[in-house]
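LAB NOTEBOOK - FOLDING QUEUE
OPERATOR: T.R.
BATCH SIZE: 2
PURPOSE: Compare the predicted structure-token outputs for two unrelated chains run back to back under identical settings.
PRIORITY: normal
REVIEWER: second-year student, initials M.K.

ITEM 1
FIELD SEQUENCE / FIELD STRUCTURE:
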Amino acid sequence: MKLVLFSDLHLDTPFRWAPIGLGRKLRVSLADTLLKVCQVARDERADALLCAGDLYEQDRFSPDTGEVLRETFSRLAPMSVFVAPGNHDWYGPDSLYRRVPWSSNVHIFSEPRLEPVQISEGYALWGAAHCAPANTSNFLEGFHAPAEGLHLALFHGSEHGFFASQVEGKVPHAPFRESEIQEAGFRHAFLGHYHRPKDSAWLTYAGSPQPLAFGEGEGAAVVIELDTGTIVSRRRIDVSTVKFHDVLVDVTKLSSMLEIRERTASAISGLHGVARVTLSGILGRTVDLKPDDLKTLNGELDCIVVRSKGLSLDYDLSTLSSESTVRGRFVRDVRSSNLDEDEKQRVLAVGLRAFDGRTDLDPI
């Protein structure tokens, strides 16, 4: 049996970090990504397309979103499409899933417990839905599939062991442990919620097929072939329509903003999509750092986001702290304060550059 899995597309996501025009373009790109996912399912002649939740944003969807989904999935018929709603597209009274007149090949799981559908001879797919945006409990707790047949699971949840590897700020939903998959009688679980892909013998996280922010990693449409319930192959196919690039620019030994612009331009040359430029290294005291000046180096890019990380200033703090001056007292007070190290560096950067008469007071 051959299946195609995807999750965490997040149609209509706001892209709050992006300029307005770019946000609109990225939202359109998500619909294009959905079309590419479905094309993979056709090309692979899959037995079914699986979506493990967060297909769209419940708080932001429009009637057009429903029509896009209805039409796109109907074109796959007679191929079956199975959707297990997550915490962003949760199944409730006002859910988009209730409003759309789905074609007969589409099945939306709608109960907050695992329920089965037959997907081929000998195989049962058990799916469950988040029916609230938060506080969904472990779908696997206390569950055990019948002894007969081959059982697969499809749901949106947080495996404990993989949680630490996800992006900062990720919140666990429907938490479970990998060992519970086998204990529940499943041969494999197809999962959503983590935007970074993860695989093991017992589970598959597809990850977001189109990045929603920098640093999320690259998910895909996952083509999975099974034989008697065991995965014999698992291939990821890139379906993203906008590329996200992380570019590191070391400013050490650069003496002017012009040199930083030149080094950045070289680093982003030939890139398409959106890029996050991270400035690192030792910033020279003569540099009048203006990060916004780097955002005009678009080239073929739609947008450049600039940040600093690990950027330090070219000051000898030990020497400065020994001065019998207001500046020396300032350095001593900050270094002995209860601020965390990142905040100390920021306060020192602002203060020392102010003492130097600089206008770019907060370069890190």
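ITEM 2
FIELD SEQUENCE / FIELD STRUCTURE:
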Amino acid sequence: MKFRYRNFIEMQIANKLNWTNRSLLYLSRSFDNLHHGQDYLDIHSAIHIGFLDYTLFPEHPEFYATYKMSNMKNHHIYSDNFVLSVVDLTCIDLATEEDRLYHINDWARLFKATTWEEVKKMAQQNEYLQEASRSIFQFNTDEQMRKLCRDRVEYYQDLRNYERYIKQQDSVIAKLTVEKDAAIAELTAEKDATIAELQSQIQSLTDQLQNSPANREPAEK
């Protein structure tokens, strides 16, 4: 059986607060690979692999994670054709035995290398890493000018994302402020009502004491 799939690999160094939606968007575009008249059985599987230099979900740190569509109750996999994988370059020490078996940790260290000496040393481990190191070198020499253009476009895109995020946070803060003011007003009203009721009770007791027989002046004989 011949497996048909499309891989999409991307790396993000800084957490731009948009990875989940961004990866889903690119994966969906890659999965939409049928031409008019083709059968749905001819569709290619789509696999998006992200190398992140930060932890995507801090409450669930993991070196290599794979996500698929599955049943919420019994976790049965809906399809193997739509896959998201995330490699956390900051958690290489959490690599499992299976991760090391497939040299995923070696690829992570290759991407974390900061000098060409480190890259060359990593490349000596196998032919695939050697080919990747050559591609990285070629990419870095040929892409410098195009990178400047892409960086400009990404800068404005990220700026819009941050501005939208700040507006969302401002909206949340404004809503919380209104709720806080309403709660304070309600508590103040309850306090004033309680004080008024206590004052009324005190006045009533005072009147009763003043009108009691013990406090009346004796009649003159």
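REVIEWER COMMENT (ITEM 2): The beta strands are 5-12, 45-52, 64-68, 82-88.
FOLLOW-UP: none requested
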